[in-house]
Design brief:
By secondary structure, this protein is of the alpha/beta class. Helix content is about 35%, strand content about 20%. α9 runs parallel beside α10. The longest helix has 25 residues, at about 355-380.
Length: about 450
C-alpha cells in the first residue's frame, strides 16, 4: 500500500481540519503521497462531521460522490474517518458497503498502519476500527497545513464536558482534555518558523482550558505566553463559552497588542427557559453582563456569536425575545442555525418541536436583521485606520487585493478589498477604510507615518 496517492477531504469545523492536517502529515511521513485531485488518487479518505443534520448530510453526500470515483476511476479504496463513524459505527458499515474502512476519532495516530493493513483487514471481514475517543494531539504530531501559509488554527484542547442537551460532541470527541502550556507553545513556535503570522485559537470550549490540568493554568496565562512567540502578529480567539469568559481573560485581550480585539462567544439563545432546556451553564442575565463587561474592558471589541433557532419549546414569544436581544446587542458578526434533532441527545426527546419551515423563517428573520446591523457597523468604520492581512489577488484594477482586518476571522466573516501598490500575500499593512457594504469593507493602503 505504500507509495499510493491519497486524496483527503476534510469536512466540518477547523478542529476537524487540524485532525486532517495531522493525518496527512502522518501519511506522507510513511511513504504515501497526498494529491489535491480525486481523479489521481488510489485511496480517498473523507474526514467527516456529524455535528448537525446538514453536516451529516454533507458527509453522506460526499461519501456517495467519492464512491463513484471508486466505481469508475482510479480509486481502489474509500476510507471514512472522524465523527460520523465514531457516532454510528456498525450501522454505517452495514449501510455503506462501498466504503472499505471506517475509522473513529481516536484512530488518528494509527492512520498509516491502518491504511497499510487495510486489504488484510477487509479480507478478514473487519471494516471498522472505532475505539474510545481519547486521542489528544501534541506538538510531536506535525501537520500538513491546509490553510494559507500565513494563518493556522491551533487546537489547545479536545472534547467537551459541558453536555449541552442538543450536542453530540461529548459522544464523538470524549470528555474535555487540555494540552500542556509548554507543548502548545512549542507548536506555536513551529508554526511561526514556517511563516505563520496569525494563530487562531480553537477547541470545543477554549475558556475551559487548563481546568483539567495540574496547577490549573488558565486561558489567560496561555494567551500571555503565546504573545511571546516571535513571528506571530495576530492571535485570534474562537469558541469561548460565555459562562467561563472571565474578567481576567478580557483584561488579557485588552492589554496584549498581539491578541485581536475579537471574541467568538456562541451564546445559542437568550431566553432563560430555552437556555435551561439546552443545559447551558448561564442564564440571560450573566450573558448580558459578560457582553457589557467585554465592551467596557476592550473598547471597540468585535463580538461574534452563534444562535440556534427553533429549539424545542421555542414559542413565538421566546423567539421575539431573542430577536429583540439581537437588535439591542448589535453583534459585529453573527451566525444562526436551525435546531437539528440529533439522536442520542437529551433534546431529541423533548416535546414541542418546531416545524422545519418555521425554523427556516425564524433563521431568515434573524439574519435579515443582522444584515442591517452589520451594514451599519461597517459604515461606521469608514475613515478608520485598520491593519489588514493580505490574502489574495483580486481581478479588479481598483481593488487588486483581498484581505482581512483584525475584526474579520478566516472563512466565517466578511473580507476587505484593498487598493495597495506593492503589498504581497501574507503582508500586514495599514489601510484606511473608504467604503463598506453589508459584510465586506473597502480600503486603501496608507503610509504608516501619516
Amino acid at each position: 500500500m505504500k507509495n499510493k496517492n491519497i486524496h483527503l477531504i476534510s469536512l466540518g469545523c477547523p478542529k476537524n481540519m487540524i485532525d486532517s492536517e495531522v493525518m496527512a502529515s502522518i501519511l506522507t511521513g510513511n511513504g504515501f503521497g497526498i494529491t489535491p485531485h480525486a481523479e489521481e488518487a488510489d485511496i480517498i479518505i473523507i474526514n467527516t462531521c456529524t455535528f448537525i443534520l446538514p453536516a451529516k448530510e454533507e458527509s453522506i453526500d460526499e461519501i456517495l460522490r467519492m464512491a463513484e470515483w471508486k466505481k469508475h476511476g482510479k480509486c481502489e479504496h474509500l476510507v471514512v474517518t472522524g465523527c460520523l463513524p465514531q457516532m454510528y459505527g456498525i450501522t454505517l458499515e452495514r449501510e455503506m458497503p462501498e466504503v472499505d474502512l471506517f475509522l473513529g476519532t481516536g484512530e488518528i495516530p494509527r492512520i498509516a498502519d491502518l491504511i497499510s493493513n487495510m486489504e488484510n483487514e477487509v479480507s478478514a471481514g473487519r471494516r471498522s476500527c472505532i475505539g474510545e475517543p481519547t486521542f489528544l494531539m501534541d506538538s510531536t504530531f506535525p501537520r500538513l497545513l491546509s490553510t494559507p501559509f500565513y494563518s493556522a488554527y491551533l487546537k489547545i484542547a479536545e472534547g467537551c464536558s459541558n453536555h449541552c442537551s442538543y450536542c453530540v460532541i461529548p459522544t464523538v470527541r470524549g470528555k474535555f482534555r487540555s494540552r500542556d502550556v509548554d507543548d502548545i507553545l512549542r507548536e506555536a513556535e513551529i508554526l511561526a518558523s514556517g511563516g505563520v503570522k496569525e494563530i487562531i485559537i480553537t477547541a470545543q470550549d477554549t475558556t475551559s482550558y487548563g481546568s483539567d490540568l495540574k496547577g490549573k493554568p488558565t486561558l489567560s496565562i496561555l494567551l500571555k505566553e503565546l504573545t511571546s512567540v516571535d513571528g506571530i502578529r495576530w492571535i485570534r480567539l474562537l469558541y469561548t463559552y460565555p459562562a467561563y469568559l472571565t474578567k481576567e481573560i478580557l483584561q488579557t485581550i485588552s492589554e496584549e497588542e498581539k491578541i485581536c480585539n475579537y471574541i467568538d462567544i456562541p451564546i445559542q439563545h437568550i431566553d432563560d427557559d430555552i437556555l435551561k432546556a439546552m443545559n447551558r451553564k448561564e442564564g440571560s442575565a450573566p450573558i448580558r453582563n459578560t457582553i457589557v463587561q467585554a465592551r467596557e474592558i476592550i473598547p471597540g471589541v468585535a463580538l461574534r456569536t452563534s444562535l440556534i433557532v427553533g429549539f424545542p419549546g421555542e414559542t413565538p414569544e421566546k423567539f421575539d425575545r431573542l430577536l429583540s436581544f439581537i437588535k439591542e446587542t448589535r453583534f459585529e458578526n453573527l451566525g444562526a442555525f436551525r435546531y437539528s434533532r440529533e439522536e442520542g441527545t437529551a433534546a431529541a426527546g423533548f416535546p414541542s418541536h418546531v416545524p422545519e419551515k418555521e425554523k427556516e423563517r425564524r433563521r431568515n428573520t434573524l439574519m435579515e436583521e443582522q444584515s442591517i446591523i452589520s451594514h451599519e457597523i461597517n459604515r461606521s468604520r469608514i475613515g478608520s485606520l485598520q491593519e489588514v492581512l493580505i490574502e489574495e489577488e483580486y481581478d479588479n484594477p481598483e481593488f487588486p487585493l483581498v484581505g482581512r482586518t483584525r475584526d474579520q476571522a478566516l472563512d466565517i466573516d466578511g473580507i476587505t478589498y484593498v487598493k495597495a501598490s506593492d503589498a504581497a500575500i501574507g503582508d500586514i499593512i495599514t489601510c484606511r477604510i473608504t467604503s463598506a457594504d453589508v459584510y465586506d469593507l473597502f480600503a486603501e493602503e496608507v503610509d504608516e507615518g501619516t
